[in-house]
Specification:
Layout (H helix, E strand, L loop, with lengths): L5 H4 L5 E4 L13 H10 L6 H16 L3 E5 L2 H14 L3 H6 L8 E5 L10 H6 L4 E5 L7 H7 L4 E7 L12 H10 L4 E4 L8 H5 L3 E5 L10 E5 L1 H8 L13 H13 L5 H18 L6 E7 L7 E7 L6 H11 L3 E4 L8 E4 L8 H14 L13 H13 L4
Parallel strand pairs: 1-11, 3-4, 3-5, 5-6, 6-7
Antiparallel strand pairs: 2-8, 7-8, 9-10, 10-12
């Protein structure tokens, strides 16, 4: 007999996540080590400063940084990292935020100004900082970066994400070279990345990771980097970071996930993902008017996905197919960031045993239905689908 499912008790629809590490779905499957550490820590009292010191050691060992701390999430980590460059360890300046001093501009190349369910700029402006963009959406240069660096700049934010423009940007190494020549620290937003050492090794001053997406901890963020800046970031808990605090259980879980990372069977995980992609590709073999192909993660994470591109005359064919999957029980939620260009992706990195086969059966069933690609018309347009989603959001909690 299978274990009781809390979703049934709470009256929630079951979901199979083939979208990836999405916050809106609960991000990722927590690792057993992280769950055990959180449960073990919850009944006890502990000095949070001491627990964060222990976390700093674990973060330093995992990333090669001088120090680190755990925060509520990666978005919170970005805000306190920026605040750290503005205030240093000055407690009075920390309490004064978001009132800013002379160094209050954060430089971002325009192609990195993405939206991750909230605008990147908001995590910057929460500190009181201002944003100085450089370049154009599809082209930025080192000389444009150098031109905006002056005595008012507190930091540069470099975003590593599939949601940014993937061409024509100034690479990280060049950004670090130009910024360091001007005495400006570089903060890397690496929220969804699993390269725990490369950004620090490249010379980034602070790197912000999600604790739960790739690492499989509880919801949390990790700030790693220079000791003086990490200290200043941690001290933001005396100011704007108070509302971004993480509990003892989250810190303990992050430590456990970091310590488990080197011993995880990464090769085995990737091999299983390839097996699943082959299974799904075969299930969609007879889907008419569609091209199905394996694509690599654009930022270099060791994840491959199945891209389903609809060639139908109906521009909303992919959206209609995705909606039918989502309307089932359990709901199968796909990665729909390309839905407006008639494509969705299937991500295999968050599956429980047996779910890959359940997805394959549903894909096969939907692909076999007459009119599975939507035909020349019918169903909601992409714009109507987005409007309906907005209407549901604005009606919450009804």
């Amino acid at each position: 007999m299978s274990a009781p499912d809390i979703r049934d008790r709470l009256g929630l629809k079951r979901v199979i996540n083939v979208a990836g590490n999405m916050t809106s779905l609960g991000a990722s499957i927590a690792r057993p080590e992280a769950i055990a550490a959180a449960a073990e820590m919850l009944p006890h009292f502990v000095s949070i400063d001491d627990l964060q010191r222990r976390a700093s050691t674990a973060i330093a060992q995992a990333t090669g940084a001088e120090a680190g701390c755990v925060t509520a999430c990666a978005s919170a980590g970005m805000s306190i990292a920026i605040a750290a460059t503005m205030t240093g360890a000055d407690l009075a300046a920390i309490e004064a935020l978001p009132t800013t001093g002379p160094r209050k501009r954060v430089v971002v190349q325009l192609g990195h100004m993405c939206h991750y369910s909230a605008p990147l700029e908001q995590s910057i402006r929460l500190t009181g900082a201002e944003i100085a963009t450089f370049g154009n959406v599809n082209r930025a240069t080192a000389w444009q970066l150098a031109h905006v660096l002056d005595e008012t700049v507190t930091a540069m934010m470099f975003v590593v994400s599939h949601q940014t423009v993937q061409h024509g940007q100034v690479p990280l190494a060049e950004c670090i070279r130009v910024c360091h020549a001007a005495g400006v620290p570089v903060i890397v937003d690496a929220a969804a990345e699993t390269d725990l050492t490369g950004f620090i090794a490249a010379g980034a001053d602070l790197v912000v990771y999600s604790a739960h997406k790739g690492l499989g901890s509880m919801t949390g963020g990790i700030v790693a980097g220079r000791k003086d800046l990490v200290r200043a970031a941690y001290l933001q808990s005396r100011g704007i970071g108070r509302g971004m605090k993480v509990g003892k259980e989250g810190i303990a879980a992050a430590i456990a996930a970091l310590e488990a990372w080197p011993s995880r069977d990464h090769a085995g995980e990737q091999a299983e993902q390839e097996r699943v992609l082959d299974l799904w590709r075969e299930a969609l073999r007879d889907l008419p008017d569609a091209r199905v192909e394996t694509v690599d993660d654009p930022t270099g994470n060791p994840i491959r996905r199945l891209a389903v591109r609809f060639l139908s005359a109906n521009p909303a064919a992919a959206a209609a197919f995705a909606d039918r999957l989502g309307d089932g029980d359990p709901a199968i939620v796909v990665r729909d960031e390309f839905i407006d260009i008639n494509r969705f992706d299937l991500d295999p990195c968050n599956l429980h045993p047996g779910e890959a086969e359940d997805v394959a059966e549903r894909l096969r069933s939907e692909a076999a239905k007459p009119g599975s690609t939507g035909g020349p018309a019918g169903g909601m347009s992409v714009a109507e689908r987005q409007s309906a989603a907005t209407a549901r959001l604005l009606a919450w909690p009804d």
